[in-house]
Write a structure and sequence with these properties.
The chain contains eleven helices and 17 strands. With about 425 residues, the chain is an alpha+beta fold. It is globular. It has a six-stranded mixed beta sheet, with no helix packed on it. Strands 2-1-9-8-7 form a five-stranded antiparallel beta sheet, sandwiched between helices. It is about 35% helix and about 25% strand. It has two domains: about 250 residues, DD-peptidase/beta-lactamase superfamily (Beta-lactamase); about 100 residues, D-Ala-D-Ala carboxypeptidase, C-terminal domain (Peptidoglycan synthesis regulatory factor (PBP3), Domain 2), CATH 2.60.410.10. The relative contact order is 0.11.
Length: about 425
């Protein structure tokens, strides 16, 4: 037998034995590893996989660490964002909030506003019925599932628009109030201008994608505040968490009603062009914040990001009451009055928003045309108190007479006039 063959054979046997022993050795190392690690600090757990679409959870940490910046406030995943404290007119978050964006179903807020306006004016009643046209019945997307040619009450249509985000309900309301949806959309745009929504144009009642239809995050926040402030008795419709119509139960798409304390309404939206958006408001300890986001990538991301931003707003800022309603700002001089001065008081609380932990430094100036001629009746508006905010903006609060000041009698008026003309030059 050749020597070379024996050497090759020996090497093959050695290799086979080595391979046969490799697996048990590896297994032994894996079994012993935990014992060796018990005396060392635990290893950092691997990052959790991202949440499945539609399931609420925490934002992806990698996204949070590299959030696109905002012009005001913290960074956000939203393409457009706007947060305001309406009580002090303080903008807490601003990210391209004046750039055009798709309103999607947030356009329904204007349809609902007009319906609320009609009810408040007495021109429409909650039990008024509108007929379902074929156009309304055939609407796609989110629906209330109204029946063709049926008659639906205005109250049910309002719930259908708010809770179920029903595109069909919007068309029924639009046709019931204006005859055609096109005419109603013109009314929506006109009302937007009246409310100061300078960047909004509506082409339909539901927010269904349409050429030329646009809004801004700031405009939607303004519409939300008008809805809350103008219709306090009707706004609670926005807080309904679920509703059943035509034996179909649907949940409100505004998840913050259940997951973020203090949330009491408004509206979500989604289109392929604009992404996922939401206009929402919450109240805590008497303080309200309004938030608008748009351009997010999923329902889960919308819920997570909106909740995170709202929590940030309440946590990182606070309101301080500078003056309570009825507090005196200045004692104004009175001309020919039984008293020489009259207190000028604010008609509502004067508050200032500042970062949590920082004391506000208000700068307020009273403006009025004085001396004020007597007689003066308590409650008469006589001037304004101008509060200058840290960002340079000035907010004016009405000033009223805090007391009645009757006119002096004849003798008193003569004496005052004599003093004025004889000695006024000394003052």
């Amino acid at each position: 037998m050749p020597v070379s063959w024996r050497i090759d054979r020996l090497l093959s046997l050695m290799a086979a034995l080595a391979l046969a022993g490799a697996v048990p050795a590896a297994v032994a190392q894996q079994q012993e590893a935990p014992k060796r690690q018990t005396q060392k600090p635990p290893a950092k757990p691997p990052a959790k996989p991202p949440q499945a679409a539609g399931k609420p959870g925490k934002n992806d940490p990698s996204k949070i660490e590299s959030l696109p910046p905002s012009q005001i406030g913290i960074g956000t995943l939203a393409q457009f964002a706007f947060m305001i404290d309406p009580q002090t007119s303080t903008v807490l978050l601003f990210k391209d909030a004046d750039k055009p964006t798709h309103p999607s179903s947030m356009a329904k807020m204007m349809t609902i506003y007009i319906a609320f306006e009609e009810i408040a004016a007495g021109r429409l009643k909650p039990d008024t019925r509108f007929r379902v046209s074929e156009r309304a019945y055939k609407m796609q997307g989110s629906r209330m599932f109204v029946e063709l040619n049926s008659e639906v009450t205005v109250e049910d249509l309002i719930k259908g628009m708010i809770v179920l985000s029903g595109n069909d309900a919007c068309v029924v309301i639009a046709e019931g109030l204006s005859g055609t949806e096109e005419a109603f959309a013109e009314r929506m745009t006109k009302k937007a201008k009246e409310l100061g929504m300078t960047g909004s144009v509506f082409k339909n009642s539901s927010g269904w994608p349409a050429e030329g239809q646009a809004t801004t995050a700031r405009d939607l926040a303004l519409l939300a505040w008008h809805t809350i402030n103008d219709f306090p008795k009707l706004y609670p419709y926005y807080a309904i968490t679920d509703w059943t119509y035509n034996n179909i139960k649907q949940a409100n798409r505004n998840r913050l009603l259940k997951i973020t304390p203090g949330t009491d309404g408004l509206k979500t939206g989604h289109t392929e062009e604009g992404g996922y958006g939401q206009t929402t408001s919450a109240v805590r300890d008497g303080r309200r914040l309004i938030l608008v986001v748009n351009g997010l990538t999923s329902m889960a991301e919308r819920a997570q990001e909106t909740s995170r931003l709202m929590e940030w707003g309440f946590r990182e800022s606070t309101n301080t009451t500078i003056l309570k309603a009825g507090d005196t700002v200045v004692e104004a001089p009175v001309w020919l009055g039984a008293q020489e001065t009259v207190p000028l008081v604010v008609t509502r609380s004067v508050q200032m928003t500042s970062p949590t932990g920082q004391a506000p430094q208000p700068r307020m100036v009273a403006r009025f045309d004085g001396p004020l001629p007597a007689p003066i009746v308590k409650g008469t508006k006589l001037g304004v108190a101008a509060l200058t905010l840290p960002d340079g903006r000035v907010i004016e609060y009405p000033l009223e007479a805090g007391a009645d000041v009757p006119r002096q009698g004849l003798v008193g008026r003569v004496a005052t006039l004599v003093r004025h003309y004889l000695f006024g030059w000394l003052s």
